[in-house]
Amino acid sequence: MYLKSNPMPSSIFQKQAAKKDVFQIFAEKVRDHKNLESRWAVLQETRVEYFRGKDFVSFLRNHPDLKNILESDRNLEIEDIGDILLRKNLIVRCDRVVKTLRPGKKKLSTWPAHLELFSEQVFSDNDAFFAWTFVNRWPLWQTLLSFFWPVLTIAICLFPVYPHRCKLFILYFCAGLLLLILTLLLLRAFVFGSLWILLGKRVWIFPNILAEEATLKELFQFWPKKDEDERPKWTARLFYTIVAVVVILLLRHHAPDEAARARYQKRVSNIIDDVLEWSPSLALSGMMEKQTVFNATDPDSNVTDGSKTTTEQTAQPEDVEGDIITDEHEVEQPIENSEDTDHQ
User: Major place of localization (predicted)?
Assistant: First the structure.
């Protein structure tokens, strides 16, 4: 007697295969969350995004609702969740490359720029770093931005054909933006140099304005973090003060005079006027004028003959002029001879 097996429907296997791993979804949600602080670093010649173990623990304690994504595993401890993420190769534990204090530093960097793999892939919140191993999906704004860049490139290339008012607006906007950036950078340098020389403090206002990876909030952060480095020596401050004074005096001595500035301003204004006043109609009219002048001339075969006749015609007035001059000399000579005879 044979028992007829009752196989599971194929639809169940398809659903299980299509079902995404809950820990993968959990890792994507955690990575995209704004409250989990992370940085970028170099791991084995590859740029990776990483976070600290203690930040991960405090993040999940403040957002326990994210553990509901794990369904049946939502009651696991945070350390166990971290170990599962390590086993599934969603994260990898790293360690700082530089493990010794640099001269003048009191403690190691909070966010190192270079990492290496840690020997034991176990979750820990004690000075441990973890890098994401999967490629994060692009948000909607990055996708739209990828389509916007080619349009912006074409718009920049079409700048010469814009209307005059549009050109003026773009010119003043770009000039104002460039002036704002230069003013901000000079102000940062002036504040840093003044406080460093006078008080020995390293204060960079807008500390993240030149950062490669920073959020919009971090980018416009005004006041920097507390300076934890050792104060510079008074000899170094005095030396750089003398250097700064000498540089300022040299710049003032070799500054251009009023006439040179006026010439430079006129040259720049002429270049800007040429760019602003150019239009396709003027360019086409200039090309048509050149074409009409070229068509008015003789063909190439008769160009040499025409040049010969013109040279002969130009040579004739010179000969006539030479004859006139010789005749004048001949007329003047008898007059002088007659005057000599009268004196005698």
Answer: endoplasmic reticulum
| pLDDT tens readout for residues 212-240 | 666 677 777 888 777 667 788 889 889 99
- Give how many domains the chain has, as a whole number: 3
Length of the chain equals 344
Does residue 251 belong to any structural domain of this protein?
Answer: yes
Q: 3-state DSSP call for residue 178?
A: helix
Closest by CA to 41, choosing from 132, 107, 108, is 132
Give the C-alpha separation, 115 to 96, whole Å.
Answer: 5
Structure confidence by residue, pLDDT tens digits, 108-125:
888 898 999 998 999 998
Q: What are the residues whose beta carbons fall under 8 Å from the beta carbon of 97, sequence distance 6 or more?
A: 112, 114, 115, 116
Q: Is 180 left (phi over 0), alpha (psi -120 to 50) or beta?
A: alpha
Give Dmax over CA atoms of the chain in angstroms.
171
Domain boundary among 203, 226, 255: 255
Q: Judge whether 4 lies within some domain.
A: no
Identify whether 54 is part of a domain: yes
- Structural domain of 247: 166-255
CB-hemisphere CA count at 13 Å for 292?
6
**Same domain, residue pair 51 and 89:** yes
Residues 6+ positions from 96 with CB-CB distance below 8 Å: 108, 109, 112, 114, 115, 116, 129
235, 255, 275: which is the final residue of a domain? 255
Residue 138 falls within a domain, yes or no?
no
